[in-house]
Amino acid sequence: MPDDAFLPPVPDTFSPPVPDVFIPPVPDAVELVLEAATMEAVFAAQRHVRIDAMRGEMLAEAAGRGAGVTDLVERSIRLELASAMRVTEYAAGQMIVQAEALVHRYPAALESLAGGRMTPKHAEVLVEKVDRVEPALREEVAARAVELAEAEPVGSFQRALRSLIQTLEAPTLEERYQAAVQNRRVVVESGEDGMGVLLTYAPEVEVRAIFGRATAFAKAIAAQEGETRTLDQIRADVICDLLIDGTTDAVPTEARGIRASVVVTVPVLALLDDELAETADPPVVEGIGPIPLSRARELCGGDASWMRVLTHPETGMVLSVGREQYRPPAALRKLTKWRADRCMGPGCWMPASRCEIDHQIRWVDGGETSLENNAPFCKNHHLIKDNTDWVVTQIEGSGGAVEWRSPRGRRYVVQPERRVPVFTVSVEKNAEAAPF
Ligand SMILES: [Zn+2]
């Protein structure tokens, strides 16, 4: 076969050659906004560097003149910056603090800002939070804070950073708790107009449990026909009844057997082994934060009214939430909300307790009531999901991550606060955790 058999056929009519130049894709409207936002970050980094340089220069000059008291020099610098930028001296002071921190103590964060990888707001939060960490832990926290800032929206970043700091500072929690618990007491104070105040200073787990149980009673009582008291009033009455008589009047049948319920999350091996406990995440109580391991062991060994959530020490995966708690729908709701902790909309902070449980595949379309198909959304995000061109799906096998695909085709993944292994749920019977 002759070589020229592979050449393209010569066209009958001449057409000019297509120029071999790169034509950049036309940026869409979202990209144009992002571009401006990136520039803002780049300029913010520049501003920090220049403010710090300005301060350095002025401090050096003052030292050269023997101007003395540094505090006065700092004040003067603040006023100079505030006047030039037409902001308050307080705002100028904040800028100086931020600039100093980013330039001298958190250079990796400054570099990230200068590269447009985090927003000025992220940088501000980072400095504010990391500055408050025990000095010995600061370097470690700062490095991980930069990673988080580059990956998470501001709200989630703030929460993730807070829980990271709590976790790292947890080893001293036991000691601090043991000292504080010695001061538990009940105090009575006289109020006005014949009223009084009963203050109970006790471990937060118990205090929340008391309040939770009284509220559950009050809600059941408030739902009765003819009940006119407010929830606040009933709650106060219930607590008085229970403490004075050991029982409360007019408890409707639905309220019988209401027990306090607190969700305790504990790495499972930490319960058994002290050495493992040191490396595992600290036990956490929902709405309270880390608690000492000794308390967690007590709670997990004791009363059935604690909802015990045991997690694997390495993967953090949930091993058990207590068999009786898996029964759908109530327990499933609880688990779904516990897993997400808040609305699964991008960057949303609404607590899961104030969210609606959504069926990703709608019930009428055959969607199951299952952990794989349910996620909590606030009203706003629920509306957006159901009524706009956003496509929202739970990522299969992810343990609860939700993907939001924007009408423009952008993809955002919202991670749940906690991981749950894949569960097989049967509607009539209990849900079983799949072995792994
Ligand atoms: Zn939301």
Shape descriptor: extended
Bound molecules: zinc ion
Strand fraction band? Answer: 5-15%
Order of helices and strands: HHHHHHHHEEHHEHEEHEEHEEHEEEEE
State the major sheet.
Answer: 5 strands, mixed
In whole angstroms, how far apart are the ends?
62 Å
Radius of gyration: 29 Å
Instruction: Outline the low-pLDDT stretches.
Output: 312-329, 422-436
Compute the average pLDDT.
79
Number of helices: 14
Q: What structural class is derived from the secondary structure elements?
A: alpha+beta
Helix content: 40-55%
Number of distinct beta strands: 14
Trace the largest sheet across and list its strands: 5-4-3-6-7
Structure, described:
The chain has helices at 29-64, 70-85, 89-105, 107-114, 120-130, 135-151, 154-169, 173-181, 204-222, 231-244, 274-279, 293-301, 330-340, 379-387, and strands at 185-190, 196-201, 262-267, 284-285, 289-290, 306-311, 318-320, 356-359, 374-377, 391-394, 402-405, 411-414, 423-424, 432-433. It has 436 residues and is of the alpha+beta class. The termini are far apart. Mean pLDDT is 79; it is low at 312-329 and 422-436. It has a five-stranded mixed sheet, with helices on both faces. Strands 10-11-12 form a three-stranded antiparallel sheet, with no helix packed on it. Bound molecules: zinc ion. Zinc ion (ZN) binds at residues 343, 345, 348, 350, 377-378, 380-381.
